[in-house]
């Protein structure tokens, strides 16, 4: 039994930050939880989904973050406690609703957890979501430890109910994806019965009185911020330096002070409720000390807010020195780490810490620089996306008109790199490839000759691409949409989505079929298996032809692929799929999902006699160009071979070898 | 067994897909079961897509520490892949660090494509040995493949870790932890992977150089 759902007060469990947030919500008696998956937030709802049945919750993967927030808010408006989780980009999607919900207020506790990804390790940006709390006058909590992640989540529900406002919790990767000991508390046994209070409509309009009411609530939040147990000071009475920090910065600061042996000189003002700023509490320390360092991820949120407070009070408290992102003491982009914090303290207090002998550092770094090869991210062995991008590359090369691929967010974003043969040329928000294609698809009349291709994953399609597809059909945009259907939200941990026939809690639900959706909007739709490389190339070629004159295949001999007679004839005769938006669904399950269920499809072997190595003339197509990690280049023999520890047996490489040296047999 | 120092800092490193994160979770749970305060920092996102992956474990008798180990302060390195071990020693190593190494390489795309070379494994081991106070090796991937699936290599490594007597990991606690974390049908195979690792790990000393079995292949 998972410790998440154990009613065992005092028990200590090793929890991931996201699990601790889930546990905090359970201890608060949450009833409705909704999210769209996004790293580093995904495990919050994943964990709650796993215990939903035994705990009597409704937990769902919603189609996108805005709908997720609306679902959780409905619980709140009916008097139940609701939780919505998302990553930083997700808050942009949900913000339209959030910035009206603050005006109508909430009833049952509503907690919005946003897990930010400093440095954008698995994101397209590293935006700091805290600015939304300020924008919407919403209370904001920032956990610093795993234990605190649980405590804060539980308290956030009470705070929300006292204020009648949604409460934001801003986590970061180093909290959400860290693990630590968590002491569990009691789980509540019962909850209220839901009902919508007809005497209290929730309409944001008219804005003015609601805005006034919001400010009244915000004033009460300020009082609560002053009393919050999550704000505290740790350090000497007369510090030479006060570090003002929140979230992951707290433990870095604490450890840096210990390692530098300056605990007697440095005070740490750790803020947990960071908006509204606990002004009186912070002012007390501003008065007493002269030197301040801000340690926070990503933007100077505390830094600017405290400086505002200082400006308002400087006449009374005198001149102060502030260090942080503004003066370059701390980098203004990227993730914090112990070295950044240590270096800032060293600079400000003129101390030095040598964690290891300098000659060891030098030798170790030189040895690594000389011997260790780079290791870029790439598609997994057996990933259908590699086959898809291979087919795109061949089709666009054969076509010869410089067609280009507009992309968006998912594992297939790696299509911009070597693993996807650098085919993907744009990357912005969820669904943006299709939206951009709506625009590029109108430019033919101005002389654009290049074929326009968009790629979009299955889960992303439901999340954000459907309006763009409708727009394409409505306004007559001309492009090919490739739907990369791997039957999972693979990038975030294989969560189900409306096309999988399963809910977050594993219950069966009707499949909302990709093909049917596209057809109902009038798009021409075809389906192929990307592992069938030849058919995929032909289909892409046919679908990027347009009515405006037949474009012959300009580079028929540019790659090692013979198009079938019929397909070539059809194209020569101009028999093409009509203009407008065309959809090709590339359907093949994520290799990691299939590996959980079944063993390898094929046993793959490189025939060492048939492989001609560098003498072949193929320029080592399999390894130098195709680059599947399941292949190896054997330096000693000068031949390709299979790495049996990595190969998943998809068999795609057998189709690309011009010497037919790579062979597959049923495993 | 007492901690040699507090916090005691362990880094488990390897390549996405090798089970790095699961290994750190199992190790963490095993230590929490014995009363330690653990903080683990993990690299996600890239973890299943062939990039370098690292988990940091801070083991303390009393306090949580930050999920990232400060540079130069690793105490034990568990490397699931040779060059990944060396990659980690560059920032985190120090003359006292101990290393447990899986000698089986996984070639990066850069090596597969011919844009970079994979160094000779014996040279990597010798370099790691020079940078460590002690080093133990085994070919955990080969053992796992002999068992039928490379997926067991992380558990083979945890078995090896239990036998080198640096951390208090006993077989029984390990077994109860994996019963909580892994599907029940896999427990028996995972326990034999653990036992193979325990049996086959060898310390590389001045008198006893890298064995052919431990030397891996390149």
Provide an overview of this structure.
- The complex is a heterodimer of chains A (667) and B (218).
- In chain A, helix 1 runs parallel beside helix 6, helix 9 (249-259) packs across helix 12 and helix 14 crosses helix 18.
- Chain A is 38% helix and 17% strand.
- Chain A is built from 22 helices and 24 strands.
- Chain A is an alpha/beta fold and 667 residues long.
- In chain A, a hairpin with a 4-residue loop joins strand 22 and strand 23.
- Chain A has four domains: 3-227, Rossmann fold, CATH 3.40.50.970; 232-349, Rossmann fold (3-Layer(aba) Sandwich); 384-595, 3-Layer(aba) Sandwich (Rossmann fold); 599-666, Alpha-Beta Plaits (2-Layer Sandwich), CATH 3.30.70.20.
- With 218 residues, chain B is α/β, with parallel strands linked by helices.
- Chain B has a single domain (8-203), classed as Pyruvate-ferredoxin Oxidoreductase, domain 3, CATH 3.40.920.10.
- Helices cover 38% and strands 18% of the residues of chain B.
- Chain B has eight helices and seven strands.
- Chain B has a seven-stranded mixed β-sheet, sandwiched between helices.
- In chain B, strand 4 (76-79), helix 2 (82-92) and strand 5 (98-102) form a beta-alpha-beta unit.
- In chain B, helix 1 packs across helix 7 (171-181).
- The N and C termini of chain B lie far apart (38 Å).
- At the A-B interface, strand 1, strand 8, helix 9, helix 12 and helix 13 of A face helix 1, strand 2, helix 2, helix 3 and helix 4 of B.
């Amino acid at each position: 039994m998972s410790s998440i759902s154990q009613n065992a007060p005092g028990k200590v469990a090793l929890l991931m930050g996201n699990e601790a947030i889930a546990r905090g919500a359970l201890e608060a008696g949450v009833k409705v939880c909704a999210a769209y998956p996004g790293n580093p937030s995904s495990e919050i709802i994943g964990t709650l989904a796993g215990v939903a049945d035994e705990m009597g919750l409704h937990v769902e993967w919603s189609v996108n973050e805005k709908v997720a927030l609306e679902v959780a808010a409905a619980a709140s408006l009916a008097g139940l406690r609701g939780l919505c989780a998302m990553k930083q980009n997700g808050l942009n999607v949900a913000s339209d609703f959030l910035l009206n919900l603050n005006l109508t207020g909430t009833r049952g506790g509503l907690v919005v957890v946003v897990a930010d990804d400093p440095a954008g390790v698995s994101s397209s940006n590293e935006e700091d979501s805290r600015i939304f709390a300020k924008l919407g006058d919403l209370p904001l909590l920032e956990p610093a430890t795993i234990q605190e992640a649980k405590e804060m989540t539980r308290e956030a529900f009470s705070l929300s109910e006292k204020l009648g406002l949604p409460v934001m919790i801003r986590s970061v990767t180093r909290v959400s994806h860290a693990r630590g000991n968590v002491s569990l508390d009691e789980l509540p046994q019962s909850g209220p019965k839901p009902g919508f209070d007809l005497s209290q409509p929730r309409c944001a309009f008219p804005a003015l009185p609601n805005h006034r009411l919001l400010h009244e609530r915000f004033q009460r939040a300020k009082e609560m911020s002053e009393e919050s147990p999550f704000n505290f000071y740790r350090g000497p009475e007369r510090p030479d330096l006060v570090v003002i920090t929140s979230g992951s910065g707290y433990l870095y600061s604490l450890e840096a002070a210990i390692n530098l042996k300056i605990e007697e000189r440095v005070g740490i003002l750790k803020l947990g409720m960071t908006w509204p700023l606990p002004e009186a509490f912070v002012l007390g320390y501003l008065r007493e000390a002269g030197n301040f360092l801000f340690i926070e991820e990503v933007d100077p949120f505390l830094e600017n807010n405290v400086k505002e407070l200082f400006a308002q009070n400087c006449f009374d408290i005198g001149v102060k020195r502030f260090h942080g992102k503004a003066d370059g003491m701390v980098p203004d982009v990227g993730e914090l780490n112990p070295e950044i914090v240590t270096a800032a303290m060293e600079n400000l207090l003129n101390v030095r810490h040598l964690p290891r002998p300098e000659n060891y550092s030098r030798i170790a770094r030189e040895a690594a620089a000389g011997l260790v090869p780079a290791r870029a991210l790439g598609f997994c062995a057996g990933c259908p996306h590699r086959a898809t991008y291979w087919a795109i590359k061949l089709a666009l090369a054969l076509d010869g008109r410089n067609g280009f691929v507009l992309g968006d967010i998912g594992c297939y974003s790696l299509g911009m790199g070597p693993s996807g043969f650098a085919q993907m040329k744009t990357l912005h928000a969820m669904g943006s490839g299709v939206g951009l294609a709506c625009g590029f698809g109108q430019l033919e009349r101005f002389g654009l000759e290049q074929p326009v291709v968009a790629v979009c994953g299955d889960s992303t399609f439901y999340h954000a691409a459907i309006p763009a597809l409708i727009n394409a059909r409505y306004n007559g945009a001309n492009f090919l949409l490739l739907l990369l259907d791997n039957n999972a939200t693979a990038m975030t941990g294989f969560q189900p989505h409306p096309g999988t026939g399963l809910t977050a809690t594993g219950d069966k639900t009707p499949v909302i079929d990709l093909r049917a959706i596209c057809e109902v909007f009038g798009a021409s739709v075809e389906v192929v298996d990307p592992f069938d490389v030849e058919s995929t190339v032909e289909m892409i070629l046919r679908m990027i032809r347009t009515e405006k004159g037949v474009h012959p295949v300009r580079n028929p001999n540019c790659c090692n692929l013979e198009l079938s007679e019929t397909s070539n004839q059809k194209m020569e005769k101009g028999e093409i799929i009509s203009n407008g938006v065309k959809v090709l669904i590339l359907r093949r399950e994520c290799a990691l999902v299939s590996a959980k269920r079944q063993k390898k499809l094929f046993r793959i072997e490189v025939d060492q006699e048939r492989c001609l190595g560098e003498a072949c003339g193929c320029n080592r197509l399999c390894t130098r160009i195709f680059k599947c990690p399941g292949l190896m280049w054997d330096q000693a023999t000068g031949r390709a071979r299979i790495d049996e520890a990595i190969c998943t047996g998809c068999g795609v490489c057998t189709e690309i070898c011009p010497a037919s040296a790579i062979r597959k047999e049923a495993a | 067994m007492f901690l040699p120092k507090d916090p005691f800092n362990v880094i488990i490193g390897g390549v996405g897909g090798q089970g790095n994160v699961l290994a750190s979770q199992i190790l963490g749970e095993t230590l929490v079961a014995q009363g330690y305060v653990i903080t683990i920092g993990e690299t996600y996102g890239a973890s299943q897509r062939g990039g370098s992956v690292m988990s940091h474990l801070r083991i303390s008798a009393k306090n949580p520490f930050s999920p990232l180990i400060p540079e130069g302060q690793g105490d034990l390195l568990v490397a699931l892949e040779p060059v990944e071990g060396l990659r980690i020693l560059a920032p985190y190593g120090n003359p006292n660090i101990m290393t447990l190494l899986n000698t089986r390489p996984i070639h990066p795309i850069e090596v597969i494509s011919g844009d970079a070379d994979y160094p000779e494994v014996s040279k990597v081991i010798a370099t790691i040995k020079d940078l460590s106070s002690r080093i133990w090796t085994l070919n955990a991937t080969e053992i796992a493949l002999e068992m039928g699936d490379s997926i067991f290599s992380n558990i083979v490594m945890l078995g090896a870790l239990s036998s080198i007597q640096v951390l208090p990991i006993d077989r029984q606690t390990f077994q109860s932890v994996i019963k909580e974390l892994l599907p029940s049908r896999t427990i028996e195979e995972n326990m034999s992977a653990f036992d193979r690792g325990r049996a086959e790990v060898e310390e590389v000393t001045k008198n006893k150089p890298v064995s052919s079995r431990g030397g891996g292949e390149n």
